Amino acid sequence: MRTVDQALSEILEVVRPLPPCRVPINDALGRFLAADVLSDVDSPPFDKALMDGYAIRASDVDGDTAAELAVVAEVSAGMVGTRAVGAGEAVRLMTGAPMPDGADAVVPVELTQFDAATETVRMNRARPVVAGANLMKRAASMRKGETVLAAGREIRPQELGALAEIGYCDVPCRPVPRVGVLATGDELVEVGETPGPGQIRNSNETMLVAQIRRAGGEPQPLGIARDNRDDLRAKINTGLQYDMLLLSGGVSAGKLDLVPSELAAAGVRPLFHKVRVKPGKPIWFGVLDRSEDGDSRRCYVFGLPGNPVSSMVCFELFARTALRSLMGDPQPSPPLQKGRLAETFECSGERATYFPCRWERTETGSTIRLIDWRGSADLRSAIDADGLAVFPIGEQHFASGSVIEMIPW
Fold first, then answer.
1. Model pLDDT for residues 85-112, shown as the tens digit of each residue
2. I want to staple 315 with a disulfide (CB 3.0 to 4.6 A). Which of 180, 279, 319, 348 is the partner?
3. Residues 6+ apart with CB under 8 A from 397
4. What's the pLDDT at 265?
5. SS3 call for 35
6. Structurally, what CATH architecture does the domain formed by 4-19+176-326 represent?
7. Peptide bond into 330 cis (omega under 30)
8. Share of the chain above pLDDT 70, in %
9. Contact, 137 vs 164, CB < 8 A?
């Protein structure tokens, strides 16, 4: 039986990022760049004023905090001035306007006093003006031909702004993975139905769909597969058309746990079954290689335990890692944060424990507080959690104040 780290390593060894595509810039948020992005311009394209004020020659007012200069022109953003700044002269500029020839500094308008009658401006400053003040030199931000964004970077709003600045209407990135979600079991009814004797609502589908969407994937709910081979086989074959398939339930060792054998019959190559993790030990993972129109494609399949918290934890640990890797995320494994444990905790056995917790940020640091959780079927208590406290394999005593790791949600 694999450890969590071994299972994650095996997932990352076999999962290949989806082939690159190009999408309109306004659809690229949250995706990962599939190629380096180069600038086609200098930015800024000229020396420009960073604020409203007067372009001057710093040497004209050197040491004179009340110098008076002749205002010879005015330039707004979007205009190109034709008048150079000579000795004893100034040009009024608006924020973002090109610096006129001859000027090497900008004095903010609030530190000046303009005399309309004489068309002069007096400097009202406590400090001398230095060359380069309040302006941005051409190409200070980026140069034409420079790599602005490297492949693998996640596209956030600021990346979108940079892409727009350098003219990328279409962005080279990885596709959004499509993930089928299939719940299994004769005991399940739809969310809108009233459960009869021995029945429960299909809450796992709703939960997994939300987890997929939050991780950046496109979920495809496939409904409920009953505990008979014909129904399960038909729905599995539908799910295998997607980039990833998540099945919930039917992966343990019971008489009606048919998922592993039906996946094998469909040609899915098993890579591991059972991991030393609590909750979630029965998790199953495999790969289907298929060919479509001459292109080799894969479907990555996870059989998740049916208990809701087990299913949730296994998604965050394993399926999310595969999903983020498909998206091109260079760091797809679960993120970890450290904090001090708020209470003592005892754990034992051969499985790492992932315990629902709250992560509290205080002035003295981060505190990890375990919730009152009753096990893998207790989804009600898990809604009070915003992360998973990580307790490694082995019989250990964790005192209050111990520094441990947690996975934030």
1. 999 999 999 999 999 999 999 999 999 9
2. 319
3. 344, 345, 346
4. 95
5. coil
6. 3-Layer(aba) Sandwich (3.40)
7. no
8. 97
9. no
The CATH classification number of 337-408 equals 2.40.340.10
Domain locations in the chain as residue ranges: 4-19+176-326, 21-43+140-173, 48-136, 337-408
Task: Name residue 398's amino acid.
Answer: F
End-to-end CA distance of the chain: 27
pLDDT digits (tens, 9 = 90+) for 18-48: 999 999 999 999 999 999 999 999 999 999 9
Residues contacting 31, CB < 8 A, separation 6+: 23, 154, 155, 171, 173, 174, 176, 216, 327, 328
Residue with tokens 């009024």: 92
Question: What pTM was computed for the model?
Answer: 0.87
What's the whole-number mean pLDDT along residues 287-313? 89
Task: Let me know: does 406 contact 388? Beta carbons within 8 Å.
Answer: yes
Those residues whose C-beta lies under 8 Å from the C-beta of residue 116, and which sit 6 or more positions away, are: none
What lies within 8 Å, CB to CB, of 26 at 6+ separation is 160
Distance, CA of 64 to CA of 178 (rounded, Å): 68
**Which DSSP letter does residue 84 get?**
P
Selecting from 3.100.10.20, 3.30.750.24, 3.90.105.10, 3.40.640.10, what CATH number does the domain 21-43+140-173 have? Answer: 3.90.105.10
The radius of gyration computed from the CA coordinates of the chain, to the nearest angstrom, equals: 31
Q: What one-character DSSP code corresponds to residue 130?
A: -
With contact defined as beta carbons under 8 Å apart, do 75 and 94 qualify?
A: yes
Contacts 24+ apart (CB under 8 A), 385-389: 385/356, 385/357, 385/358, 385/409, 386/357, 386/358, 386/359, 387/337, 387/356, 387/357, 387/358, 387/359, 388/313, 388/316, 388/354, 388/355, 388/356, 388/357, 389/341, 389/345, 389/354, 389/355, 389/356, 389/357
